[in-house]
Amino acid sequence: MKWGLYTVFFLALGVFGIVRINACSGDYAFRIPGYHSYKYTPEKYKETLDWVTSKNNKNTKKYNAASTGMARLKVLEKVDNDLLKIIDTNLFPFWYGTDYYFFGESQTPGQGKTSCGHFVTTILKDAGFVLDRRKLAQYPSEMMIKHMVAPEHIHRFSNVKLTDFLKEVQRLGDGLYVTGLDTHSGFTLNKDGNVFFIHASGRYPNCVLKEAAFESKVLKASKYRVLGKLSGNNELLTRWVSRDSLVLPAFQNDSIR
Q1: In the chain, what are the domain boundaries?
Q2: Most buried of 4, 26, 44, 97, CB within 10 angstroms?
Q3: What is the pLDDT of residues 36-45, one digit of tens each?
Q4: ∠ Cα 195 88 150 (to 5°)
Q5: pLDDT, tens digit, for every residue of 33-86?
Q6: CA 29 to CA 13: how far, in whole Å?
Q7: Can you tell me the distance from the alpha carbon of 201 to that of 253, in angstroms, rounded to the nearest whole number?
Q8: What is the pTM of this model?
Q9: 216: buried, middle or exposed (CB in 10 Å: 19+, 13-18, 0-12)?
Q10: Nearest-angstrom CA–CA distance, 196 and 207
Q11: Which CA distances in Å does 114 have to 32, 102, 146?
Q12: 3-state secondary structure string, the chain?
């Protein structure tokens, strides 16, 4: 009887552990102890950035070697896929769980704190874009987007219900969007019909996280939303692969007022 109770106890404990791990293995995996100490460490992030630099250099060589406009477009198609993978698969996971602070400027995921704007600009810089990370992060979110993305790739929504907004995001197509809200910024990811919001959140749990967009209280509360599409944006991709400044020429001499 005694061993029977022990068996039941340990089985229940095992089931609880499996459920707990499964609950944390998705968007909230950073809650698992050791997330930044063992799996997504600063050392591994540095190795990832070195890999990103190497990959970007190869794409730059391919783009420069392309002899025709059609050949360059084919390179940009691959570059477009690479950019999304680099940011979503290789960079974002390191940052999940990094503490939020309004004046945070951390460049190392899991250490220090980051603000919403600095999270956006740090990700873009680490992906290989040439930009002034601190300066760009100080702009209001819509102004930040206007500095980076040409008008034809910017979409604005005022007093639109969250459900209608998300339908428009799906209509605009798969890809990654820099997103500006009333007093916040982050990334919107439309992937296979599922929309996510990735941001350094000033709401609970007060850290960088990826959440289903339809569940995001931050997205829902904002009356004004601006999307700057990065994916499928050949002008922006050309600046990335050519190592030109991410900031559009019209804004390069701009100053923060």
Answers
A1: 1-32, 41-249
A2: 97
A3: 989 899 999 9
A4: 75
A5: 789 989 899 999 999 999 999 999 999 999 999 999 999 999 999 999 999 999
A6: 20
A7: 31
A8: 0.88
A9: buried
A10: 16
A11: 20, 7, 22
A12: CHHHHHHHHHHHHHHHHHHHHHHHCCCCHHHCCCHHHHHCCHHHHHHHHHHHHHHHHHHHHHHHHCCCHHHHHHHHHHHHHHHHHHHHHHHHHHHCCCEECCCCECCCCCCCEECHHHHHHHHHHHCCCECCHHHHHCCCHHHHHHHHCCHHHEEEEECCCHHHHHHHHHHHCCEEEEEECCCCEEEEEEECCEEEEEEECCCCCCEEEEEEHHHCHHHHHCCEEEEEECCCCHHHHHHHHHCCECCCHHHCCCCCC
Rounded CA-CA distance 248/146 in Å is 8
HSE value, Cβ hemisphere, 13 Å, CA-based, for 218: 29
Six-digit token string for 240: 């990335």
Amino acid occupying residue 66: A
Both structure tokens of 146: 């206007």
